[in-house]
Specification:
Layout: H1 28-41, H2 49-77, H3 80-106, E1 119-122, H4 124-127, E2 137-143, H5 149-164, E3 169-175, H6 176-185, H7 187-194, E4 197-201, H8 203-218, H9 222-239, H10 258-272, H11 277-283, H12 288-312, H13 321-330, H14 341-369, E5 393-395, E6 398-403, E7 407-410, H15 415-418, H16 422-432, E8 436-437, H17 439-446, H18 454-457, H19 460-470, H20 476-485, H21 488-492, H22 494-497, H23 513-528, H24 537-542, H25 549-558, H26 569-584, H27 588-599, H28 603-610, H29 616-626, H30 629-644, H31 653-670, H32 679-693, H33 699-706, H34 711-716, H35 719-731, E9 739-745, E10 750-758, H36 763-773, E11 778-785, E12 790-798, H37 804-822, H38 828-834, E13 849-853, E14 861-868, H39 873-883, E15 887-896, E16 899-907, H40 917-932, H41 941-949
Parallel strand pairs: 2-3, 7-8
Antiparallel strand pairs: 1-2, 1-4, 5-6, 6-7, 9-10, 10-12, 11-12, 13-14, 14-16, 15-16
Helix pairs in contact: 1-2, 1-3, 2-3, 3-5, 3-12, 6-7, 6-8, 9-10, 10-14, 11-12, 12-13, 12-14, 13-14, 16-19, 16-20, 20-23, 23-25, 23-30, 25-27, 26-27, 28-31, 29-31, 30-31, 36-37, 36-38, 36-39, 39-40
């Protein structure tokens, strides 16, 4: 393929980026005249401090006005790339004006010597001719030899003015020789110089840098450059979770963001010696359609980034929840039935991120044809600079495809047109032969998507092949992901296409809906392969016994497929399954099973986390819902996969133990008493396991400790937690009624506080109040009453600091608040008054809901409260219940991102249910009031009684 000379924006008159008119935003001539007037009025000719202050004032006014006009124009046209170009060109005008003023008036020099020549060059992002409102300004002061006094003075004058104007400036002063030497040794500097742009100064010097850079650095080194850039890209992706579908993406650095587009163009510019995407299209590297796709993605991402900077007034690159709604409004998105405006905006964002990934693969395919890099394998990019041209191998049973370096490739450009079933068959062949996909294959698939029509969707062979891919025994998620990225999955199953790139506007879900579904398939596959036996022992034991394997995989793929619809997604998803499953080849029994699993896919997790599973009514109601042991097995496995796929840190050992306990409590009900182990046997085994872990204790001490806990503790608490609790209780001094310990967990992003104290109905309320007073938000709480009258309460706090040392200090501060409050050294009211009430993120709105139910338990009234979480919420609710003379028998605290779901099993003070309608109404009204008005409940005699019970006096 012919190659062209490397040129810069400043020397390429055909480059559209060099033809930017900003006369309507800043008047360069008028600015120069105002600066000249300052010099003429100055006794020192412009060199005095007064003149500098006047220059700064003029520049500040010019910059402020220019940026105001750019933002107004941007709000009108929403053209992100144009906004970035305008800001960069305005920056040029500013730097040229200061440079010219300095040379003419501040450091006047009529004839510059050869050694005093200098070029001010924009590099990096600024060198591309684009700037976001708060971008750093990267400058290279290019010198012919070493730095001269004049060059140093001009550079210093310019830099200090830019800093005083509030710009963040990265700069370097180097000779051409130094630039070449450093570019050879450092890929970052090489990339920076690759994106260069002469702002002002000596053009011959700038051209000299370009010529030497091409001849001595670029020539013959494209393989090394490509390898470095792709490795850098992979490392950046890995740092951010290696997915483009995180719901708070980084617009600049995230996968599918601007940095990926930059990397793509750096590689193209370096290897093909071009300066524009149009030139790539002219060379045949990308098509005209793909060129337009590049421009569309670039413009959209710049629009988002510029809006982020304008909205926050700083270099904010993360599209966080509290900003997404505002950016959606700025970009003109509207709500549709089932989808908020912000969700439509974010879906568009993720589709653009997917387009960026497609463009990267297309360019890599073109590079491979020229032997610039090796092909990626399933395990990742390996040996990027090694040529992989090898002999093609046939695939048994087909002549339409062959194996090309362990990748499936098409045998002719018409394979999909000749037989559209091949659009599904290619994924089945790749899965059964453990092959990657040749970039040419994926490129042809994307260009053949229009062949996926109703006829193909109804084709029995195509559906059978798809089901084989979905239930592949090795790596179904990998091939489904390739199918999704190529656009086939959303076309073949249109209902799936509706949730591709769809985000759920909540802090609980970390990924888009399609990403969540694919990750859940991956978890199921890994359990089936035995890779997660230690983490999920029960699911790993159950899965080989499952008879309805196909139904389980189909249900997991479809369980959230109806998200974004006005109807409840579980019910709507079940309806979709009843239509789709027969098409896929499932019989009536499998179809009914899949639809039930989808409709009830949240029931097990909700029951385990929000209900008292030691209450027999809970187990009975759950068993009635499930009906058979086979369904229980399937629901258990599906629930584990669903929770695990929500995001990092969502799954933990406690949730696993709750699910296992619910399963084991329900099993005998469904089998007529026949179970793998009775409750008594499981209790005995749990006690024996803990005793074995405490083998270094004296036998009498160990037996006494085991007798402290009631059965539900052993059945619902993970063994590792039991061991930690035992060590904590043992270490507690018997003469001290209050002992507190702090532990951090960086992976789960939580801090745990264990409190051992005399039990009292208001203990949880007082602990929650102390946490609220310390500004700590309780994400979870486990309350265990012991037989000696003490309570072991475990509070899980949302983490505030990244470093463990900082978080431990914060935990000790919270502990100190707890100690002061329980020991009567401070009052809850004063503690909380010192903490300014923190409202939930402005992006979220949710009215609180309070439900009082007497049917969920035979012994207790169940109060279920939902609403936006906030610091101090648990304290307010438990305090209010105490004021309402309610006795909390068990509490089940759950946090799902921004939403709190707190369930309390209560009685009145004589142990009876709450049956009075008027009292129930007062409870609901007061709890809603407390939810919406932090700290509004009164201090009552009950509070004084609680403090007296501890033997403490109110201060």
């Amino acid at each position: 393929m012919p190659q062209q000379a490397v040129t810069s924006r400043a020397t390429s008159p055909d480059d559209p980026l060099s033809q930017i008119d900003v006369s309507g935003f800043i008047d360069a001539t008028g600015l120069a005249q105002r600066l000249a007037a300052i010099a003429e009025a100055d006794s020192a000719g412009g060199a005095s401090n007064d003149a500098r202050a006047a220059v700064l004032a003029v520049l500040r006014e010019a910059v402020k006005e220019a940026r105001r006009r750019v933002e107004l124009a941007f709000r009108e046209d929403r053209a992100g790339f144009d906004c970035a170009r305008r800001l960069a060109t305005i920056q040029d005008v500013l730097i040229r004006s200061v440079h010219d003023f300095a040379l003419r008036y501040v450091f006047p020099s009529s004839n510059l010597s050869a050694g005093e020549r200098m070029a001010i060059v924009a590099v990096g992002g600024y060198g591309r001719g684009t700037l976001a409102p708060s971008s750093d300004i990267d400058l290279l002061f290019l010198l012919p030899y070493k730095q001269t006094a004049l060059g140093e003075q001009v550079a210093e004058y310019l830099l200090y003015l830019l800093w005083d104007l509030g710009f963040k400036v990265g700069h370097a002063s180097r000779t051409v020789e130094e630039c070449i030497k450093l570019a050879k040794a450092d890929m970052t500097i090489r990339t920076s110089i690759l994106e260069r742009w002469l702002i002002v100064g000596d053009r011959d010097l700038f051209d000299q840098l370009g010529a030497r850079f091409e001849a001595e650095v670029v020539e013959g080194s494209s393989e090394a450059f490509i390898a470095a850039k792709l490795a850098e890209r992979s490392a950046r992706h890995a740092k951010r979770g290696d997915t483009r579908y995180v719901v708070e993406p980084n617009v600049k650095e995230g996968k599918g963001g601007l940095r990926d587009l930059n990397t793509l163009f750096w590689i193209a510019k370096y290897h093909y010696r071009v300066t524009t995407s149009e030139a790539l299209a002219d060379l045949g590297v990308i098509s005209r359609r793909e060129m337009r796709l590049f421009h569309k993605a670039e413009d959209f991402l710049w629009a988002v980034r510029c809006n982020l900077h304008f909205a926050t007034g700083k270099a904010e690159e993360r599209l966080s929840f509290d900003l997404q709604a505002e950016i959606a409004e700025r970009l003109g998105y509207n709500a549709h039935p089932g989808l908020k405006d912000v969700e439509r905006f974010m879906k568009h964002f993720f589709l653009i991120a997917k387009d960026v990934g497609d463009l990267t693969r297309i360019l890599c395919a073109a590079l491979e044809e020229q032997h610039a890099k090796a092909a990626p394998g399933i395990g990742g990019i390996r040996d990027l600079v090694r040529s992989l041209r090898g002999r093609a191998k046939t695939i048994p049973g087909t002549i339409d495809f062959h194996i090309d370096n362990n990748r499936i490739n098409v045998s002719s450009p018409s394979v999909f047109k000749d037989d559209p079933v091949n659009l599904i068959r290619v994924f089945r062949l790749a899965a059964s032969n453990n092959l990657e996909y040749h970039p040419d294959t994926l490129k042809l698939i994307r260009r053949s998507l229009k062949l996926i029509n109703a006829e193909l969707r109804d084709n029995p062979e195509a559906n059978s092949l798809f089901l084989d891919v979905l239930t592949d025994r090795q790596n179904p998620e990998f091939h489904l992901r390739r199918m999704n990225e190529a656009g086939v999955l959303g076309r073949f199953i249109p209902e799936f296409g509706k949730i591709v790139a769809m985000m759920q506007f909540s802090m609980y879900h970390h990924y888009t809906v399609d990403e969540h579904l694919l990750r859940s398939i991956d978890i199921l596959s890994r359990i089936e392969l035995g890779e997660l036996a230690d983490e999920h022992p029960l699911s790993s034991e159950l899965l080989p016994q499952v008879k309805e394997r196909r139904a389980l995989y189909v249900a997991l793929l479809l369980h959230d497929i109806a998200k974004g619809r006005p109807e409840d997604h579980s019910i709507a998803g079940a309806k979709i399954a009843r239509k789709l499953c027969p098409r896929l080849g499932l019989d009536d029994r499998e179809t009914e099973l899949v639809s039930w699993l989808i409709e009830d896919h949240l029931v097990m997790s909700m029951t385990a986390q929000q209900r008292d599973i030691n209450d027999r009514k809970t187990i009975h109601d759950f068993a009635v819902r499930v009906r058979t042991l086979d369904r229980l097995n399937l629901l258990m496995i599906l629930t584990v996969c669903d929770i695990r796929a929500v995001g990092p840190g969502v799954w933990n050992g406690w949730k696993g133990q709750l699910l296992r306990s619910l399963y084991l409590e329900t099993e005998p009900t469904l089998t007529g008493g026949f179970t793998r182990s009775t409750r008594a046997e499981r209790l005995a085994v749990s006690r024996e396991r803990l005793a074995a872990r405490l083998s270094d204790w004296e036998a009498s001490e160990r037996d006494a400790y085991l007798d402290l806990h009631y059965p539900n503790y052993f059945l619902t608490t993970p063994l590792e937690d039991q061991v930690r609790h035992a060590d904590f209780v043992r270490a507690a001094a018997t003469e001290d009624p209050l002992v507190i310990a702090v532990r951090t967990d960086a992976f789960q992003s939580i801090t745990e506080i264990m409190v051992l104290a005399p039990d009292h109905p208001r203990l949880l309320s007082m602990l929650a109040g102390a946490c609220a007073g310390a500004g700590a938000n309780i994400a979870d709480a486990q309350v265990f009453t012991m037989s000696d009258g003490r309570a072991l309460d475990v509070l899980v706090l949302n983490r505030q600091f990244a470093e463990d040392a900082d978080e431990l200090r914060r935990g000790e501060r919270v502990s100190d608040y707890i100690r002061k409050l329980l020991q009567g050294e401070d009052s809850r009211t004063r503690l909380i008054s010192e903490q300014k009430a923190k409202r939930p993120p402005a992006a979220f709105a949710m009215r609180p809901s309070v439900r009082v139910d007497n049917d969920l338990s035979n012994q207790f009234t169940v109060i279920e409260i939902e609403g936006l979480d906030r610091p101090g919420l648990l304290s307010d609710l438990t305090r209010a219940m105490a004021d309402l003379n309610l006795d909390i028998r068990s509490a089940h605290i759950s946090t799902y991102g921004e939403k709190a779901v707190d369930v309390f099993y209560v009685t009145d003070l004589v142990g009876a249910k709450i049956t009075s309608g008027s009292r129930t109404e007062r409870i609901v009204d007061w709890l809603v009031h407390v939810f919406e008005n932090p700290g509004s409940e009164p201090v009552t005699a009950g509070v004084l009684a609680a403090e007296k019970a501890y033997g403490f006096a109110r201060s």
